[in-house]
Amino acid sequence: MTDRYPGPLPTPFFKRHVNEWVEPTMVALFSGQITASKPGVLIGATKGHGKVVDVFLAIKGSGKDDSNTLSLTADVMINGTSCLTTAPVIAHVSGEAATNKTTKETGDTGITQAVIDTDNDDYAAGDVLTCNWTLTRTASPTTEMNNAVLIVELQPYQ
Fold it and tell me: How far is CA 40 from the centre of its chain?
């Protein structure tokens, strides 16, 4: 048995039309301890034409280094050109425990939210999205950052 809505639908080909227009959210994962930067990580290829509408970063463990800078930045590129004027950043704040953080919500300490570059946010069918994970750290933080997720939300053009 299925829980899908059986209809009536606006047209007999409604599901096919939705599939042609809907772009899935794209995700890049950095699994495990983050001990070095990783440039050029493949996120995926676009299915149609549209624009990037939001980018956010989430991390399971924000790491700990109370005496030195410890942060993770993720820049998103469409065919090698950044679509952000400000990349999302999660940074350890001195005195805090290593914890999960996200740049999606405002008000947390040590985060910088992404700002979309409206001159470079358009994509066409088959464009390739990549990201650069940039880790700023010393040789040995008390606790390494770990398990990061980058979410890229797409909006197709009508």
Answer: 14
Q: What is the mean pLDDT of residues 38-51?
A: 93
Among the residue ranges 71-80, 83-92, 106-115, the one predicted with the least confidence is 106-115
CATH number at residue 118: 2.60.120
Domain around 107: 24-156
Cβ neighbours of residue 6 under 8 Å, at least 6 residues apart? none
Total domains in the chain come to 1
